[in-house]
Amino acid sequence: MEFTIVRPFNWIGPRMDFIPGIDGPSEGVPRVLACFSNNLLRGEPLKLVDGGQSQRTFVYIKDAIEAVLLMIENPARANGHIFNVGNPNNEVTVRQLAEIMIQVYSKVSGEQLPETRTIDVSSKEFYGEGYDDSDKRIPDMTIINKQLGWNPKTSLWDLLESTLTYQHRTYAEAVKKVIAKPVAS
């Protein structure tokens, strides 16, 4: 059987997820980057689930697309393999991600940093009963390096700057309007 499997590890970029109540449902929890972006747009502290100690990596969508195109363009080298597509060079704890995002957002928006930048919440409080997650998700890049010679290029700072610039330009005014709406009694 011929196959090629792609295992994405946190592909990030503009238009990657929804902002609750703006272009997605008001309820529900988007991925960590969109959650933090939503908090930044609203001037709210970023919520760190269980202290933000989980480790993650993030890869820029353009880098990830390059990897997938290499698979398509080189079927003889891609067939029969499972490829992790991520960026182990962009490994951070969720707490570190929050701190970097606050700095990047302040730069791209020109807005002051909030006084209380982060708050710790329990996974039960944030997600509800029964939540479980791995503490560390870091891709092994051995197979994709060997078979396709691919390595991601974009630093965490650069991918966050691109993504947060887009989100600020796209959503800041809409979020301000939602925040300013009087609540019906």
Features:
9 strands; alpha/beta; 185 residues
Q: Tell me the overall shape.
A: globular
Helix content: 40-55%
Helix and strand sequence: EEHEEEHHEEHEHEHH
Distance between the termini: 62 Å
* Count of beta strands: 9
Mean pLDDT: 87
Biggest β-sheet, characterized?
3 strands, mixed
Total of helices: 7
> Can you tell me the residue ranges where pLDDT is under 50 for at least 5 consecutive residues?
none
| Proportion of strand residues | 15-25%
> Which structural class best describes the helix and strand composition?
alpha/beta
The gyration radius over C-alpha positions equals 18 Å
Protein name: NAD-dependent epimerase/dehydratase domain-containing protein
Fold blueprint:
Blueprint (H helix, E strand, L loop, with lengths): L3 E5 L2 E2 L19 H11 L3 E4 L5 E2 L2 E2 H13 L1 H4 L2 E5 L6 E2 H16 L8 E4 L1 H5 L8 E2 L4 H7 L7 H25 L5
Parallel strand pairs: 1-6, 2-5, 3-8, 4-9
Antiparallel strand pairs: 4-7
Helix pairs in contact: 1-4, 4-7
